[in-house]
Amino acid sequence: MENTFDNLxxxxxxxxxxxxTRYSALLLRLVESLATGIAIGVGVAVGRVLxx
Length: 52
Hints:
Blueprint: H1 2-13, H2 19-51
């Protein structure tokens, strides 16, 4: 039980990662989704133009 509290104390007092590191993965995922959406939209638009 004591070991659990020591680990919890260590986790709570350890240095936090900077916000840039924390949100960079989320930002990268949002940019990937946006790029995929744009690519799909352009593909559909080209297909509609070619279909007449």
